[in-house]
Specification:
The chain is α+β, with helices and mostly antiparallel strands and 156 residues long. It is 28% helix and 33% strand.
C-alpha cells in the first residue's frame, strides 16, 4: 500500500496479464460479484476490448475495461483501489477511454450503473453522461436496477 497517495505520477497504460493479480484484488473488494481471472483473460484476448490500468508508484491504482464496436463504446468495468479513491484516478482512466475512442472514430458511449452508486453516477455526469433509461433488476446479485447512461464521445 502507498502511505501517502500521490496521483501526479499516475500513468494510464494497457493492461497486461502481469497486472491481473493486482487487478483481481481491486475487483474482489469493489464488487459484490467480481469478474473472474478467466473473464479478464478473455477481455485481454479480444480485439474489441480495451483494458487499461492506472499505475502509481509501480502499483495498480485502478483499471477500466471497455468495448468498442464500430462507432459505439460500452464501458464495462471500472474500479479504483480503496486508498486511491477520490484522487482523480477514475477521471484519468475515463478521459483516456474517451481519447482512445475518439481516435478510432467512436461517436457515443453507453454504460450501466447501479442506481445506488452515487459516486460513479457523479463521475459519469462529469463526463457528459445522461440517464437514458433503467434496466429493472439488472444486477442478479442484489436485483438492483441499473441506470443506463449515454454520452457523446466528443473531443478528447
Amino acid at each position: 500500500m502507498i502511505n501517502n497517495p500521490d496521483t501526479r505520477d499516475i500513468v494510464v497504460r494497457d493492461m497486461g496479464t502481469e497486472d491481473l493479480d493486482e487487478v483481481l484484488a481491486i475487483e474482489g473488494v469493489s464488487f459484490p460479484t467480481p469478474w473472474s481471472e478467466n473473464m479478464f483473460r478473455e477481455e485481454l484476448g479480444s480485439p474489441l476490448c480495451h483494458d487499461l490500468v492506472a499505475v502509481s508508484s509501480r502499483q495498480i491504482a485502478g483499471y477500466i475495461s471497455f468495448l468498442i464496436v464500430l462507432d459505439e463504446v460500452h464501458l464495462r468495468n471500472i474500479a479504483v483501489r480503496d486508498d486511491m479513491k477520490r484522487l482523480g484516478v477514475a477521471s484519468r482512466m475515463t478521459a483516456e477511454m474517451f481519447r482512445i475512442s475518439s481516435r478510432v472514430g467512436a461517436r457515443w458511449c453507453t454504460l450501466e450503473v447501479r442506481k445506488s452508486n452515487r459516486a460513479a453516477i457523479k463521475l459519469y455526469k462529469k463526463f457528459g453522461f445522461v440517464i437514458s433509461g433503467v434496466r429493472p433488476r439488472y444486477y442478479t446479485d442484489t436485483h438492483e436496477d441499473a441506470l443506463i447512461m449515454e454520452a457523446t464521445v466528443g473531443q478528447w
